[in-house]
Amino acid sequence: MTDRTPAGFGIDDISVGPFAHGFGTTEDGRPFVFRTRGATLTIEIYRADLGETVPQPEDVVATAHAQVTDIDLGDERSVSAFVRDLLHHATPVAGAVGRDTTLVRGILGRISAAIDGM
Fold first, then answer.
1. CA 102 – CA 35 distance, rounded (Å)
2. What are the CA-CA distances from residue 95 to residues 19, 58, 59, 91, 107 (Å)?
3. What is the pLDDT of residue 17?
4. Nearest in space to 89 (alpha carbons), one of 105, 69, 66
5. Cα separation of 88 and 83, whole Å?
6. Which DSSP helix (H) or strand (E) runs through 110?
7. pTM for this structure?
8. At 116, phi and psi to the nearest 5?
9. Spans of the chain below 70 pLDDT
10. What's the pLDDT at 68?
11. How far is the C-alpha of 64 from the C-alpha of 23, rounded, in Å?
12. Cβ distance 64 to 92 under 8 Å?
């Protein structure tokens, strides 16, 4: 686990190795997750008002992908630095820009998904 910098970036949990993964908070306070599949590390950044709920695919507001062939996946510092740098290259997900992310809208979306799943 890394400490928070004054800017707010931090990784709360990290597992290193060929399947490196973890989660944390961006500089502006949004939660993110990262995982490695094959030679690609993928980052998903979630909406800021997520709170304590479990993120759903519709909560993703930006993603980033990069090849991990030039970093040491066994070194926590290398993975942390790679993730921190890759966060700056995240691109918005289609439909996420201008999306209404109010608490009520989020709750209604989850209720609707639960009803549709019945």
1. 28
2. 29, 9, 11, 12, 18
3. 94
4. 66
5. 9
6. helix 103-116
7. 0.73
8. -65, -30
9. 1-7, 95-109, 117-118
10. 94
11. 14
12. no
